[in-house]
Automatic annotation (TrEMBL):
Positions of the MoaB/Mog domain: 188-325
Protein name from the UniProt record: Molybdopterin molybdenumtransferase
UniProt KW Oxidoreductase keyword: no
GO biological process: one example: Mo-molybdopterin cofactor biosynthetic process
GO molecular function: metal ion binding; molybdopterin molybdotransferase activity
Superkingdom: Bacteria
GO (cellular component) term, any one: cytosol
Species this chain originates from: Methyloglobulus morosus KoM1
EC class (word): transferase
Pathway: Cofactor biosynthesis; molybdopterin biosynthesis
Length: 414
């Protein structure tokens, strides 16, 4: 079959050029708001977050055992110290530890100032009042220094990086109650097409369920985004134009699926050209060629193709990084690795391809990837089975079984 990309006066924009145009067009939002730490997961800090205190706050014990001073240690033979009291986690020993004394101590409890070693309880013997230590007790310090993890004034989390659960834990450990974060993006999305029916309606010949809208809602689930589902719009040019203008008025980003190509009922490009500005239309990518990007007023616009896999691939490759940039988050480099392809793959030169694959790893750590099945841009089942994209470069032809290929894992794999 002839690839339409090979036809026409000039080649379509490459994936990298399209990404560069998106980067150039999108300026991160400037507004910020203060949110409680409990609501900060996934939000983008508006400024660098700095430690208000040391972590650990106190010098504390790493083990359950006995705290003593190394001055009392006998390195050559077992020795005995009198038990002065207990330092509990949350209830430090209040007295002074005199020469010849030790203190019962538990993991996380404050280490008394006069002591500098904790010997684990498994290594001592006791009669209840005195503790006998082994000769080499000095070898076991078992003390966590104040500020050993983070010092007051250290950078905890840089601005521009979405807060992870580990970040939230780190911030909580320093007692930070609320953080200033970039404001949420307002994103509207809709589907277009006379053939689309909503869930709950009976199946009908000539109609299909509007699966893209549900998929998009999933792709847009992010704590930094407020989303508005504008529903399914039929192939009515005026209605579509009015709906796009309305969506663009109240949102930072508007995303559509369908009607992006060249059919007589594909109005997206025309409407974008007449009501806004087309930054690009059509990319040398498979699937996803008819992607349109532009602006309607102040709102960024993405017209995704209607084929479900084309919509998914273009969302992940172009819309997701664009939204991250707009939200104030710094660009992250997608994980790519080389794997041995265990199925032969067909490909015509001219477009960069994102084929659905199943990535596995053997006991020696070697990666293997197989096709996830039928690669048609309407085939949702192979997308659902896949755990990675196999990336085939623009000028690459087919791949023979046993050849290395670039793979972009989605996250983990079975
Ligand atoms: N003459 C040409 N025809 C097509 C070309 C071309 O270059 N020349 N490109 C093809 C490519 S590549 C793609 S991708 C599609 C994209 O077309 P549109 O964005 O205009 O999408 P539609 O025509 O509206 O729909 C395509 C396909 O997807 C189904 N669809 C649409 N919306 C949904 C939805 N919300 N949920 C599930 N499925 C949906 C629709 O029924 C069609 O089957 O154009 C090719 N044609
Ligand atoms: O680009 Mo289309 O998405 O090849 O099917």
């Amino acid at each position: 079959m002839i690839d339409p990309c090979s036809l026409g006066p000039k080649p379509f924009l490459s994936v990298d050029e399209a990404l560069a145009r998106i980067k150039e067009a999108i300026q991160p939002v400037t507004g910020s708001e203060k949110v409680e730490l409990e609501s900060a997961l996934g939000r983008v800090p508006a400024e660098d977050l700095v430690a208000p205190i040391n972590i650990p706050f106190d010098r504390n014990s790493a083990m359950d055992g006995y705290a003593l001073s190394s001055k009392d240690i006998d390195a050559t033979q077992p020795f005995t110290l009198a038990l002065a009291g207990t330092s509990w986690a949350g209830k430090p020993y209040a007295g002074k530890v005199e020469a010849g004394q030790c203190v019962r101590i538990y993991t996380g409890a404050v280490v008394p100032n006069e002591t500098d070693s904790v010997v684990v309880q498994e290594q001592v013997s006791t009669d209840g009042e005195n503790i006998t230590f082994p000769a080499n007790a000095a070898a076991y310090r078992n003390i966590r220094e104040a500020g050993e993890d983070v010092k007051q004034g250290d950078l905890l989390c840089p601005s521009q990086r979405q807060l992870t659960p580990a970040d939230i834990g780190l911030l909580a450990a320093t007692g930070i109650v609320a953080v200033s974060v970039k404001r949420k993006l307002n994103i509207a999305f809709l589907s277009t097409g006379d053939e689309l029916i909503s869930l709950g309606q009976p199946p009908e010949s000539g109609k299909i369920y509007d699966s893209n809208r549900y998929m998009l809602a999933g792709l847009l689930a992010d704590p930094s985004y407020n989303t508005v589902d504008m529903g399914t719009i039929p192939d009515d040019r005026q209605l579509l134009e009015d709906t796009l203008k309305k969506g663009a008025e109240n949102n930072d980003v508007l995303i559509t699926t369908g009607g992006a190509s060249v059919g007589d009922a594909d109005y997206i490009h025309d409407i974008l050209a007449s009501c806004g500005e087309v930054k690009f239309w059509k990319i040398a990518i498979k699937p996803g060629k008819p992607l349109a990007f532009g602006k309607i007023g102040m709102c960024y616009f993405f017209g995704l193709p209607g084929n479900p896999i084309s919509a998914m691939v273009t969302f992940k490759q172009f819309v997701a990084p664009a939204l991250k940039r707009l939200s104030g988050a710094a660009a992250t480099k997608p994980l790519r690795l080389l794997a041995t392809c265990t199925t032969a793959l067909k490909k015509a030169p001219g477009r960069q391809e994102f084929q659905r694959g199943i990535l596995t790893q053997d006991a020696d750590g070697n990666f293997f990837v197989a096709s996830a099945g039928h690669q048609g841009s309407h085939i949702l089942s192979s997308m659902s089975r896949a755990n990675c994209y196999i990336i085939l470069l623009t000028e690459q032809k087919g791949v023979a079984s046993g050849e290395p290929v670039w793979v972009a894992p989605f996250s983990t794999f079975l």
